[in-house]
Backbone:
C-alpha cells in the first residue's frame, strides 16, 4: 500500500513579489509621505516636485516615474484620507426600515465630517488647489461623482422598499452631495465646529424631506 502524499507538500508555494516591486512601493509611499509634509509646510502654490524630491532624497525623475506631477500626488494623498469613507460606501445598503436607513446615512455623514475635521490641515491645502488647478478640480468632481452614484443607489433601494418618497433619485443625490460639499469646507475652515450637531441637523432635514415617517 503506497503512502498518501503529504498535503503540505502538495501545496504550491506562494509567488513572492519581486524585490523591484517592493522597492517601488516603498519609494512611492516615501514620496507621498514626504509630499504631504511639504504641502503642509509650504502650501499648494509653493510646493514643487524639486522640493519633494530633495526632501525625500530621491531623484527628480524618480518622482515623475511614480506620479504625473504635484497635482497627481496631492490627489493620491487625499484619496488616502478618504479611504476609510470609501470603505463605508462599499458596505451594502440594505436597511429593514426608515430608522435603519437613517442610522446608516447618519453614520456615513458623521464619518465624512469627522474625517474633514481630523485632516483639516491637508484639506486646506487641497482647497487652495481647487481654486488653482483644473486637475485637482477634476479630481474632486470625481470624488463627488462617486459619492453621488452611491447615494443614488441608496435612494433607489429606499424607494423600492417604500421608505423614501417618489422623486428623481439623480437630482436628489446631487442635491444631497452639493449640500455636504458646502459643509465639508465649513468644517475644514472651522466655521462649523460641532460636527455632531451639524450631522443631526442635516440628517433630520434629509429624512423629513425625502423619507416617509417611520411606522
Residues:
Amino acid at each position: 500500500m503506497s503512502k498518501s502524499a503529504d498535503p503540505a507538500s502538495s501545496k504550491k508555494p506562494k509567488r513572492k513579489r519581486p524585490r523591484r516591486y517592493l522597492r517601488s512601493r516603498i519609494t512611492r509611499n516615501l514620496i507621498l509621505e514626504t509630499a504631504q509634509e511639504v504641502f503642509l509646510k509650504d502650501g499648494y502654490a509653493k510646493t514643487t516636485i524639486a522640493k519633494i524630491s530633495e526632501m525625500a532624497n530621491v531623484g527628480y525623475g524618480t518622482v515623475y516615474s511614480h506620479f504625473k506631477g504635484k497635482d497627481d500626488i496631492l490627489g493620491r494623498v487625499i484619496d488616502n484620507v478618504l479611504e476609510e469613507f470609501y470603505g463605508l460606501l462599499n458596505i451594502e445598503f440594505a436597511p429593514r426600515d426608515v430608522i435603519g436607513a437613517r442610522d446608516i446615512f447618519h453614520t456615513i455623514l458623521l464619518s465624512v465630517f469627522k474625517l474633514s475635521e481630523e485632516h483639516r490641515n491637508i484639506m486646506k491645502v487641497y482647497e487652495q488647489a481647487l481654486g488653482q488647478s483644473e486637475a485637482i478640480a477634476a479630481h474632486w468632481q470625481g470624488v463627488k461623482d462617486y459619492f453621488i452614484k452611491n447615494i443614488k443607489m441608496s435612494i433607489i433601494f429606499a424607494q423600492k422598499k417604500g421608505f423614501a418618497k417618489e422623486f428623481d433619485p439623480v437630482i436628489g443625490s446631487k442635491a444631497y452631495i452639493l449640500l455636504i460639499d458646502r459643509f465639508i469646507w465649513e468644517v475644514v475652515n472651522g466655521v462649523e465646529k460641532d460636527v455632531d450637531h451639524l450631522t443631526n441637523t442635516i440628517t433630520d432635514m434629509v429624512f423629513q424631506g425625502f423619507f416617509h415617517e417611520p411606522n
Notes: Residues 45 and 132 are 8 Å apart (CA to CA). The chain is about 75% helix and 0% strand. The first helix runs from residue 7 to 10. The chain has two domains: 17-67, 72-210.
